[in-house]
Amino acid sequence: MPTESPWQAFRQPIHAENRDHLERLWSELPSALRTPTQMVGRQWEGCAATIGAMPRCDFGCTACYLSSEANATPPLPLEAVRKQLRQIRENVGRWGNVQLTDGELTLRDPDDVVALVRVARDLELIPMLMTHGDAFRSDPSLLERLVVEGGLTEMSVHVDTTQRGRSGRGVDELESSLHPIRDEIAELVRDLRRRTGHELRLAATVTVTRANLAGVTDVVRWTLANGDLFRVLSFQPVADVGRTRDRSGVSREELWRAISDGLREDMDEPSSAWNSDQLFGHPGCSHVVMGSVWSEPGQIPRFVPLRDPTDARAEDDLAAFFDRFGGLSFRSDGRALALARAAGVFVAAPIFWVSRGPRWLSSILRRARNGSSARTLTRLMTGRARFDPLAIVTHHFMDQAELESPTGAEREAACVFRVPIDGELVSMCRVNATDVRRRFYASLREESNVLA
Prior knowledge:
By secondary structure, the protein is α/β, with parallel strands linked by helices. The chain is built from 17 helices and eleven strands. The protein has an eleven-stranded mixed sheet. Strand 1, helix 3 and strand 2 form a beta-alpha-beta unit. Helix 3 runs parallel beside helix 4. The longest helix has 20 residues, at 350-369. The protein is globular, with a radius of gyration of 22 Å.
């Protein structure tokens, strides 16, 4: 795997390849989407996902984007998935995001899964394993292998009441009744961190239907209480795709009201303060609020948005940051590399940090405890409290009718979540909502029959 020395990170905190890649993405965006809060092309490089790595899943969820033939479809050979990862690397850039997914990847041979994570890391990608987590409940050693041998640093765990087939569970009607499962997985990861010294960052994904909308608030509060582990909390309103049976979707406004209810407990800010979002491509596709979780003993954890929506200068500060440091990332860094990169960032623009940094820091510290920023900083520096980054996300996938509408065409043209199909990167909505996945699976079965 290519390496970067601390000296190189200090001298060039933002790699030239990252800058070039972001500039290309920015130029390809429709002009209407090149706004001060647009992340694509300024800070974020988009995302891609594998397909065919393991189509089968041992769950029978009421909401599922897989086609009905998934469980009868053999997985791609390792070399074919490696080819997908190389294509993804060309399109998302250095340390870009790739989701290792399709059905349930942990059903594949453990050596294969470790190898795929290792390949992604060696290509300078950041792989996120997408899983329901049951395999690790029955065999925690698999998770340790993925982290220690494969280099896995990010994992998304999907737990919600739409799932059917989880070990030891029947049909759960309430999201809160699944907290023991969430607790079990969280403790597995904490134990892994303690024993190995490796940091594994988590994302929580939840499918939302009319039936479990009321439980969104409980999921938000549970995630904030486990802010030491989770870096992303992602909700996906159900779409009319795949083998989904419960198609009772919810609106963006309904979902964010439920999220806001979970964020506002014991807080004074109005609901609108939690809806200051960043754009990740088209506004119809994703809604993202970036922030941090403030935790201290005896207090309810608080979510603090990175940008204060009541401060007119905050948007200007954000634009100025992207102008100077767009593409900056510490996600692949160890401690020494991160310190060197941070020092390089300060040396590159000391006036920027001296003039804007204290005001931004004071704002976020003040909002963390609704009080003196000095007292908040003291608690933070003495270890009596902590800040952990968290992005709260809603992804709104399209069904076929919406995909074929004028708005759907606009959204697909600005898509930042794609899948490699026959040498091309295809939008995830098209893969889910049309016969693209079905045809791809059919080709895998035909090839398997020929080889047999």
